[in-house]
């Protein structure tokens, strides 16, 4: 088991390293001058050269990549100066020549626009994205399993056909199109009846007091959760239909158990295995999918910050957010793989 966990961790580290390198090269070939963004068009040559030197833009691309990896690595080599300590907030381990090996948090550099640390920008905004993705996953799971069960129990009826058609439509509509429609219909035209707004945050200041506004979460979480809900409906329906034909279900009916007991205690319990397998790794996907939804509903989260950074060519913020989401993906998949290995030893053998 330890060997299996070690192999998964090693695989995750390789994937993360590859993601870092790809992200670095993608954003280093895009047009845009970071010096102009930080200092403006009218600054003198000396100021521009100083900024370029600080960012390492005058170095060859392979050296820029090395310094970027050095900044991201929690164990890295830096100059042992007060300026460097203030920049990285590291703990010295032992000297390496004229430099020092240090332990630090990954340094994602600073925003071109605000000169604020990218790690601080992410930590301030990730809460909204997490709760949006989590709410969408809960909505999709509860309604998807419920509707999928009803469709299986009413196989071949108008309800079954309606739910299948609706799930196909839900999978087919792009989330940003669905988000625009939901915001316009329920958050604007019907807002007097629904009490919902097309824009809003999880936390808002009302009368100078910070308050939790749950209703602002309803429209974006439903919009984000409709597509995975449609997938869960089809998974649950197919799995339930297969389970309902098993011998032990017929035996349960023959024993005189009530139909609802057979369905929910015996059939649904076994039918949920493939659904749980699919849902277990979706939180990271929904966090990534929340980016455009946040922008449409003006939701304060990592997605809206990242899209604004793309418009402003604020590459450190975009790169930092991209790597953060990639890290969430990798950690989530690692946890799921390890849990599978614990539950099913056959996974460890493969």
Write the layout of secondary structure elements.
Elements: H1 2-28, H2 34-39, H3 45-55, H4 61-72, E1 75-78, H5 82-88, E2 91-96, E3 99-103, H6 118-153, H7 158-172, H8 175-189, H9 191-194, E4 203-206, E5 209-212, H10 218-244, H11 247-254, H12 259-279, H13 282-296, H14 302-311, H15 315-343, H16 345-349
Antiparallel strand pairs: 1-3, 2-3, 4-5
Kindly report the CATH topology of the domain at 118-349: MetI-like fold
By DSSP, the count of extended strands is 5
Shape: globular
Distance between the termini: 12 Å
Tally of helical segments: 16
What is the CATH class designation of the domain at 118-349?
Mainly Alpha
Low-confidence stretches: none
| Strand residues, percent | 5-15%
**CATH H-tier superfamily of the domain at 118-349:** MetI-like
Helix content: over 70%
| Biggest sheet, spatial arrangement of strands | 1-3-2
CATH architecture of the domain at 118-349: Orthogonal Bundle
Overall pLDDT level: 83
Largest sheet: 3 strands, antiparallel
Helix-strand string? HHHHEHEEHHHHEEHHHHHHH
What is the alpha-carbon Rg in Å?
Answer: 25 Å
Helix/strand structural class: mainly alpha
